[in-house]
Amino acid sequence: MSSVPPQPVPPLSQTLSRYLRALEPLVTPPELEESREGVQELSKRGGLGERLQRSLEKRAQRTHNWVSDWWQHTAYLESRLPLPVHSNPAMALPQQDYSNWKGQLGFAAKLIAGVLDFKAKIDNHTLVVEYLRGRPLCMDQYRQIFSSCRVPGPKHDHVMHFAGVRRPPTHITVVRNFQFFQLEVYNSDGSPLTVDQIHSQLLRIRSQSWKTDKEPMGILTSEHRNTWGQAYNTLLRDRINRESVRAIERGIFTVCLDAPVMRMSEERYTSRMAAQMLHGGGTYSNSGNRWFDKTLQFIVGEDGACGLIYEQATAEGPPIATIVDHVLDYCQAPPFVRCIFHIPLYRQTLNWYFVVNFLFIYLFSISCSLINDLDISCFTFREFGKNFPKKYKLSPDSFIQVALQLAYYRMYGCLCSTCESASLRMFRGGRTDIIRSATNEALRFVEVMEDPQAGAEMKLALLKEAIEAHSTYTEQALQGQAIDRHLLGLKLQAIEEGLSVPEIFMDTSYAVATHWKLHTGQVSARTDCVMCFGPMVPDGYAVCYNPLPEHINFSVSAFNCCAETNAEKLAGSLEQALRDLRELVLPRED
Length: 590
Fold this sequence. Notes:
Pfam families: Carn_acyltransf. By secondary structure, this protein is α+β, with helices and mostly antiparallel strands. Helices cover 44% and strands 14% of the residues. The chain has helices at residues 12-23, 29-42, 48-62, 68-77, 101-123, 140-145, 195-208, 225-236, 239-250, 266-279, 317-332, 357-373, 387-391, 396-412, 440-449, 456-478, 484-496, 508-513, 567-585, and strands at residues 90-92, 131-132, 135-136, 148-151, 158-161, 171-176, 179-184, 254-258, 296-301, 306-310, 374-381, 418-423, 432-436, 518-522, 530-532, 541-547, 552-559. The strands form four sheets. The protein has a seven-stranded mixed β-sheet, sandwiched between helices. It has a six-stranded mixed β-sheet with strand order 11-17-16-14-12-13. Helix 10 (266-279) links the parallel strand 8 and strand 9. The longest helix is centred in the first third of the chain and has 23 residues, at 101-123.
């Protein structure tokens, strides 16, 4: 694994000045003035700000990473919202070339072998260190993805890791028709099962799971965390249930063999499949085939629809995308391996003593309401890909982010707080910080872009300024110099020391600045796929994209409960914004 430096604590004055600048395009002048007064108070020599800053710097010296544990708890483990849609991202993979159960099991066998092949690189310490902008990245997240699971708690959840125990797990979990199986995936000599061996075991699992009248126990994990926590504790009182739950939690990963889904129009098919990956389609579809607490679940549908869903308290999207790229490459040409060892016996179905009947009528209705509330629109923008802005020496990511600002402005007449995840893996134990895309430069550009009197030269100049501002903020974030994790640290350090929370966290501006109406992310993969997730706030959107050389895959989601949002409309506005930006950039003939 790579050796990387510790994550720095940014200078206090730098963070506070950048915070005020970030507020300018978002809040009113009186609100901004109130925040300036709060910043001045926190900046006083010998005051609260200096004390908290010193405490953070000491914390950085004695911990693996001064903010990652705090971030994991506040962003994920303390949240009580359901994991599907609200937290767990999903990835819709390219439609596979089969349409029956035989093809399903054949592909699943290769997929499982491919994941085990990737895991072997971690176990053998042969995983190639990744680099970003010439600097090595922390590879710790890969060790956390396998054999781990989130566990509900009364006030906050926790994550259990089993890969580092003396006898690490050697099984995966396979789910079909709501029935869970424990499948041993290593031979007696420690070598992973071959594709043929796995396929043989999947055939046996299929023969044992043809009934479709089983209780969908997995759907319990889709509920509000407090409700699921109560059901979890009830389940664990029984020995049979406890053994089944522990087998799922300890498993290396989970494979969900889904039933086919009713085919919609070709235009809506990708969106429908993305929704299937996010939540499983409901009680009477495939939601019972999930254990949403599990860190990594691969989904293989009988109709060729495939993807994955992961619990992100442990890892971000880029490592997941790297695993997917490896697995799909493996599936294209799996190596032939002859095995002379006996095929291990898989455990029988993980059994349940059904003691939570009183919850199911309630949970079924809640699950359906969650699913019906999701508004998602996936599309592929085919008029250009990341090569186009590169040709004109423009950052593809910044180009897309400015297009998003224009698309939102055209719908609502203003900018909103926009977060884009920036990886902090250049640092030891680093997770993410936020790139704030709603900048002063972006606001000036979108205002002029919508001014019919403004000329093309001015629009192009302001477009380049907006792109440059976003690129600069991106570089600052990657270097550990963004503002949001530092602000979080100052707030939590005050709470930890029993001090008054600084006033800047109590005013209107901070509430506006952290109400993320645009939750965005670039998850680049060589595979022609797209990741998707739900909005962070009820009146917001989530936009994820995978820019490929000649096209860009997008997912846009919102909630139907909010009359002001519409995923399809934002998707359409985004497509037009991308076209308009291209027209600005293209050289004009005299």
